């Protein structure tokens, strides 16, 4: 159960001079975290995994181009998650990737007073379509812009990571600790995929192709955050801000001891309006190095 949720920003690498008003969190003491996990697992078992490597051509649709795909699994899993999560927490809202694509005003819920479930039913749809197991279902619970808990489930890989604000993060029940890169080690950094970046974004991200850093294009954003949280990846540098791609992972990294920040020196806001690119990293030193390079190119 979510209790004594703290409103801290332990992962911020710089302090903002903007005053942050104190807000009361909703009463979530009756919310069973295990029940949320069960909902996530059930949606994947019912709507995603039976279609993995079984999709027909008519099950796949382009949204905004040949690299931006949606499948029947995305849509049906989001529908199931939306119904089940709002039943678990009456009065809550859902901001799902596919719902926002159909009606952008759904995003307004991120600015409201009700608790919000932020859902990406299949993060890494391109991987899913091509039979690659590197995809995940992402769910986060937020209130007034603060992420309170998150679930990152990679059903084809057998991985489930859970984070709760102020209470740490776990992967398959084992505590996660991001740690720090070894002194002098080359930093492994996942960046926005070149298929989804414009020329200016490519120019800025290219500054990471330098001595001591080994950049590569990202796969599923949710899994890249998980890899940071378990110490397998040193940092990410992303140039887009869709809440459903980042909310779950940013909390996961923070609760594993990592950090994040934008090129403006401010925390990433799930409501949008961020200075981009931004980073999440295993430690503050790594984040400062990545942000310094990115900011110099902006």
Automatic annotation (TrEMBL):
PROSITE patterns: IMP_1, IMP_2. Pfam families: Inositol_P. It catalyses: a myo-inositol phosphate + H2O = myo-inositol + phosphate. Keywords: Hydrolase, Magnesium, Metal-binding. Gene3D superfamilies: 3.40.190.80, Fructose-1,6-Bisphosphatase, subunit A, domain 1. Its EC number is 3.1.3.25. InterPro entries: Inositol_monoP_metal-BS, Inositol_monophosphatase-like, Inositol_monophosphatase_CS. This is inositol-phosphate phosphatase.
């Amino acid at each position: 159960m979510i209790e004594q949720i703290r409103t801290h920003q332990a992962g911020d690498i710089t302090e903002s001079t903007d005053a942050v008003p104190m807000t009361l969190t909703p009463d979530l003491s009756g919310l069973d975290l295990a029940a949320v996990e069960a909902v996530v697992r059930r949606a994947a078992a019912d709507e995603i995994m039976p279609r993995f490597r079984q999709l027909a051509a008519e099950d796949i649709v382009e949204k905004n181009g040949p690299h931006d795909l949606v499948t029947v699994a995305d849509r049906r899993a989001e529908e199931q998650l939306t119904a089940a999560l709002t039943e678990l927490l009456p009065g809550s809202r859902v901001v799902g990737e596919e719902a926002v694509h159909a009606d952008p005003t759904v995003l307004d819920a991120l600015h409201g007073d009700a608790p919000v479930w932020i859902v990406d039913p299949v993060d890494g749809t391109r991987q899913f379509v091509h039979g690659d197991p590197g995809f995940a279902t992402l769910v986060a619970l937020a209130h007034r812009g603060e992420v309170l808990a998150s679930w990152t489930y990679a059903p084809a890989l057998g991985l489930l990571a859970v984070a709760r604000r102020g209470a740490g993060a776990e992967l398959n029940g084992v505590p996660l600790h991001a740690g720090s890169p070894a002194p002098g080690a080359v930093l492994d950094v996942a960046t926005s995929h070149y298929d989804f970046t414009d020329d200016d974004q490519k120019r800025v991200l290219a500054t990471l192709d330098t001595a001591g850093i080994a950049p590569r294009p990202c796969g599923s954003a949710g899994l890249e955050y998980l890899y940071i949280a378990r110490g397998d990846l040193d940092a990410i540098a992303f140039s887009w801000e869709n809440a459903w791609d980042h909310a779950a992972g940013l909390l996961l990294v923070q609760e594993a001891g990592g950090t994040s920040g934008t090129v403006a020196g401010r925390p990433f806001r799930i409501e949008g309006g961020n200075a981009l690119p931004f980073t999440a990293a295993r430690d503050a030193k790594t984040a400062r190095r990545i942000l310094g390079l990115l900011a110099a190119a902006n």
